Amino acid sequence: VQLQASGGGLVQTGGSLRLSCGASGRLFDTYVMGWFRQAPGKEREFVSGIDESGGRVEYADSVKGRFTISRDNNHNMVYLQLDSLKPEDTARYYCGARIAWRPRTIEEYYYWGQGTQVTVSS
Q1: Beta bridge partners of 45
Q2: Mean pLDDT of 24-42
Q3: Which of 20, 92, 80 is nearest to 50 (CA)?
C-alpha cells in the first residue's frame, strides 16, 4: 500500500483545513488508518484513528471536538477535517495504515505517507 497525503497549508488561528490521504493498492478496507503529526524537535504523536469500516474512531485529547476523521473505502481515501485550529497544531501530518485496532501504537503501522505540512499562524 502506498499512501499520499495532501491538503495542508497555512491558515490563521481558528481556521480550517481538510487533509486527505489516498491509498494505492488493494485491500484498503482491511486496514486501520491513523493520522499522526510531528512538530520540529518533537516526536511523532497520535492524532486520530479510524477502523476498517469507519464505524469506530479515536482522537487524541488535544484535538477531540475540533478534528474529525472519516474514510471512503470506495475511493481508498481517509480524511481529517481540522477545525478551530490553534498554533500548537502546527506540524507535519502523516497518515498511516496498520492492522488490528490499536491506533495509538505507532510502532505497528506498516505503511506511511510522506506527510503534509500544516502551519497555523497566531
Answers
A1: 37
A2: 95
A3: 80
